[in-house]
Specification:
Strand content: under 5%
Helix content: over 70%
Number of helices: 2
Order of helices and strands: HH
Radius of gyration: 13 Å
Largest sheet: none
Length: 52
């Protein structure tokens, strides 16, 4: 995995941890989870589009 895709994956996982912590501490926020899903889909697209 190239460096940029790896960094994006790390940020996506970090965002998941942050969204989960926010939900546990303050309650669910639909926009937060929607944003995380969009970032996760973009990350999957970047990883899938990388040259082999």
């Amino acid at each position: 995995m190239p460096g940029s895709a790896k960094m994006m994956a790390v940020c996506t996982v970090g965002g998941l941890v942050a969204a989960t912590a926010y939900t546990v501490a303050l309650g669910a926020n639909g926009w937060l989870w929607f944003s995380w899903v969009v970032v996760a889909l973009v990350t999957i697209g970047v990883v899938a589009a990388r040259p082999v």
